[in-house]
Alpha-(1->6)-mannopyranosyltransferase A
Amino acid sequence: MLEHRVADATSTGSARTSLLTAWPVDARVAAFGERLADALRRTWADPMVRRGTLGTTLVAAGSISPAFLPADTFEHPASPLIERFGLEWLGTGAGRVLTTILLAVGMALLVDAWLRMRPVHGRKAPSLAWLLWSLPIMLAPPLFSRDAYSYAAQGQIVLRNMDPYAVGPFWVPGPFADQVDPMWVDTPAPYGPLALQVQHLVVSIFPENAYLSALAMRVPALLAVGLLAYALPRLAERYGVSGRHALWLGVLNPLVIMHFVGGAHGDAVMVALVTFALLLASRGQFVTSAMTIAAAAAYKQTAVLALIGVVGMALQAQGDLAPGAPARLRAMVRHGLVYGGVTAATFTAITAVSGLGWGWIPNLSVPVSLRSMLSPPTFVGSVVEWLLRVAGMPESVTSAPVPIAQSIGLLAGLAGIAWIVWRVAPRNPVLATAGALLVLCASGPVIHPWYLLWGGLLLAAVRLSAKHVRAVVFVTLFFVTYGVVDATVSNGTWALGVSAALWMIARWRANRRRVHEQSDEPVLAAALPRT
């Protein structure tokens, strides 16, 4: 019997050994998996991470409503999944109230968790909190925007070998066109060729399913947030700023979870690549940095402003720069031509490989066809237009203020960016890049909440005073509230959104008092830049 047992044990052990031999696991992969699992366990142990995850889970549950799903989802005949699980009642008045409550409470919990995780008195924001907060909403409908449906339609256009710069979603009738916001059904794509080919790749996995294609647009966005979580703290530390504070203020920011992951916006990839490019430039890898900016611009063209930061870092790295404005100007022009040329050449190569051409250039005016009251120039022009209408002025007069104000805003923005290039970039390249992107956003004719993340995230890698940190927190809460109230208005239960807004204001004031009463730890530690 003993011999049989030994023999059986030997044969079993041999089978296991042969199985492991047949499926070898690289030691580095295994070590990475162990580190990832350990980091997830430590992250989940933080009660604020669990609170934020509960918040995004409630947001995902509250997204099953007319505010986010296509209008005919709950109409008879309802969507097959809605019918299968008996959720038609969520389209009724009581259902809308319930989903709105879940949405508002979920966002409130996420904001509360974020505020409590602020790294004061030695507290360290868990590195993978962004991932655990994102997972519950990966299968939720596109949140706070319908752009993901446009991405899916554009990917389908490329899949059918049509020119996305010449035709709009109207040319792919059926589910792909039906789910796009009616405002953009006839408009061709304004995005760069890399963005369109990524959308093409995503749609090719679900070629006949517009909804799943739209949800899958979150995968590039989630990967981009992961790159941000890697690059932003390291960029901050190279300029003497606490990496843990940069992670909290930038990556864990509720707007990132709402719009980059929830909304699946391509801006996430653009911002992540810009941040990584600045990190490369801070290490002296200027050519690679310029090529990375080209990839970011091939996703969204505004990324070219990051060359301001690269040129500023090149100036700082130049040891033989003579004093005086003329020498600085010559050096800036030289670095701008060199690294701008690398960016242009790389962008041209990406365009050639994509096979999509340069049709995006005339389409850059597509987004500005929307009247955005969040844009200061558009708001001022609209107010003047309203006053002229009240005064009984003819249409030829009342139609002028908005375009005039928008033109003035763009000129003021260009002047502001020029000043930033000359005065700020040589001293603080990261701040210059953030400032240029924010000035472009504020002076443009259209602002969406996620546009503020272009430069706003980079502020997390800049040495800010406590007052400026509070300003960033206030702006974050304002636009979180804006998104919640906008969704609740769509559900016809706006009072709940206003209530959530008041709660967030009260929570922010309470957090501000709590931090003020504590002895302030410098939120931006004085770490020396690495050499």
